Amino acid sequence: MKSIIKNSFIPNILIVIGLVLFSCKNSINNDLKNGDLLFVTANSTGLSGAINDVTQKSERAAFDHIGILKKEGKTQYILHAAPKGGSQKQKLEDFMFQQKAEGQKIVVYRLKSAYQKNIAKALQNAESMLGKPYNFNYILDDNSYYCSDFIERAFREFGVFTLEPMTFKDPKTGITNNFWAKFYKEKNLAVPEGELGCNPNGLASSENLLRIKEL
What we know:
Elements: H1 2-30, E1 37-41, H2 46-55, E2 63-72, E3 75-82, E4 86-91, H3 92-101, E5 106-111, H4 119-128, H5 147-155, E6 164-165, H6 178-186, E7 196-197, H7 200-204, E8 209-214
Antiparallel strand pairs: 1-2, 1-5, 2-3, 3-4, 5-8, 6-7
Helix pairs in contact: 4-5
């Protein structure tokens, strides 16, 4: 009798644990809102580290990617521009799995109440840009987009974000970061120092956003 109870108890516990985990996962996603901005934390090396090295403004904001949440019924999507796939619409769970598989975290930011009314149109703008290729030069181009560029354009008519002169200089030395010097040399392009642009850290520092939580 004890063995029967013991054997039936184990799968029941597993079911309960599974339900709890499922409930937790859903509670994480269900409190997200249309138009929430999902920022992906930067790695310390490679392109991710190079972006952060020249753009980080605070210890709490060290990001290399951003997307915007769109709900369609019970399904949640992220609209974003990424090196693999260009400007795309991706299921939230796939986006989350991809980022976490690469050891990166996701932090949710939300527009302040004054800008909530603009989200529907911003999402329309974002969807109109889907299918465009990724901008690997990080120089503003109407025919291709990089991640923060994609989001800034979606909200441009509402003045949520501001384009600023880009810098590729190491803030500690004032000299062009070695990664970026090599990056543009290989493309036979001049480093676009001072040209208008944007980056995830710059967008995260906008006074028009509120930091909500980490997923």
